[in-house]
Amino acid sequence: MPTLYHSPHSRSSRVISQLMLMGKLDQIKVVIVDVVRGDGSGRSDPNNPHPEGKVPFLVTDDGETIRESAAIMMYLDELFGYPLGIKPQSAGRGAFLSWMSYYCGVLEPAMVAQFAKLDHPVLKSNFRTMTEVSAQIVSGLGDNAYLVGGKLTIADIIMGSAFQWAPDLAPEAPAVKAWLKRVEAAQDCAGLQAFETQALAALTV
Ligand SMILES: N[C@@H](CCC(=O)N[C@@H](CS)C(=O)NCC(=O)O)C(=O)O
Asked: Residue 197: which residues within 8 A CB-CB, separation 6 or more?
């Protein structure tokens, strides 16, 4: 059974949400670990094998390790037959891969730069800013319900998770707001909350 290292209310929460949506949470061993939080609380957990003490982190049945949310989410989707992804050779695969990479290659750096109030031409020339990110989401969505046409994928979950975490940075466009509502409604938020409450309790004993 693959092992997922998870810390409640963190970037690994979206992996838990994905597993819940796929109905596969019981097929993954979830190890709850602590992490150093943005406010300095928490600690680097010796039980977490991630080379930098971060979450999420996945150890496969073959003992391979996978870091980075996008890679872990795509691996799990593939493992369970692509229920929330787009299979290779299928229509939309290019957009799917693009959004998964755009999340970690552009959205996260742009969002972190905005949080840190960093305004530097090198950051802009490499990653652009949240203004351009918003415009890309608007044009990528077009009239579609989800980022890759009519199907909810993990691209929606990972991209949407950024704005669940930082709603103030969510694009103002009505189409994007409606998309975020759809993505949130599609997930089992109550189930995730219950899971996180238990995970937090496990961490504090
Ligand atoms: N790009 C990575 C970021 C992982 C990450 O920074 N996770 C945070 C939790 S939200 C963490 O583990 N922080 C602990 C630390 O920085 O030591 C991903 O998406 O997986």
From this structure: 8
